[in-house]
Structure formats: structure tokens, C-alpha cells
Amino acid sequence: MEKEKIDHIISKFPETKGNLIGILHEIQNEFRYLPEEELRYLSREIEVPMTQIYSIANFYNRFSLTPTGEHELCVCLGTACHVKGGQNVLNQVKKDLKINEEETTEDMKFTLKVVRCLGACSLAPAVMMDDETHSNMTPDLVKELIKSF
Ligand code: FES
Predict the structure, then answer these.
(1) What tens digit of pLDDT does each residue of 2-30 get?
(2) Residue 64 lies in a domain
(3) Is the pTM of this model over 0.85?
């Protein structure tokens, strides 16, 4: 268990209870998921029940309770992206990475997620690799994108 890392994250927030989402973001960034043992330690340290932590962790798509890959690839299947071929893009990603939605490749390099809108509807279909949005995607373009990592 990495108490020091959690202590360091907590120390960045003068007020912890009102900043639980921010603290969880930092933990997610540090570990690439929310490890149970560290969450239990956090719960004790800031005196917030685990049920409250889990309800936030489960509500936001951004948080993961299982280990995630080095890169997160989100494929959008919102209406605009779906209409313009988002499903074909998703099928290509599944084929290339040999994983399904919410899964991580064996080498822990990629985690695949499906989202309902990336805010780039006019440039659909869109995907997001880590923090960067890629628009007007096709199966060939997403294949190249994956290769570039
Ligand atoms: S529906 Fe895909 S970006 Fe909005």
C-alpha cells in the first residue's frame, strides 16, 4: 500500500470532504485506477465512508476500480458518431486490440471505453486517446492511431 502517495495527495487539499472528487482524480491519475486498499486508507484519513467514495467512483465514467492500461482509448457512440460510422471505428479497435469495451490489453497498454459524446459531434465520428480528441475517424485512421502508440 502506498500511504505516502495518498498522504501527499490529501495534503494538496486544505479542505478534504468537499474535494473528494478532486482527490479521487489525483489518485486515478497516480495509479491509473482507484486501488481498494488506498481507498480504504483515504476513507479512514479523511473520515468519509467507503460507501460515499464508491458511489462517486461508480458514478463518473472517468474513474476505474480496476487497473487500466497506459493509454485510454474512448470511442464515441453518441448519436452523431453512431450515424457517421462510429460502430465501424469501434469494431476496428476491438479487432486490432483484441479486447472488448471496458477491457484492457494483456500488455496493459490500452484500455477501451465507449462513451456517449466527446463534444465533437460536428466532426463525428470521434475518438479520444488519453486527453486528445481525434475527429472524422475511419477504421483505417483509428488503426493508424493505435499503431502510432
Ligand atoms: S456524439 Fe460523438 S462527439 Fe458527440
Answers:
(1) 999 999 999 999 998 889 999 999 999 99
(2) no
(3) no
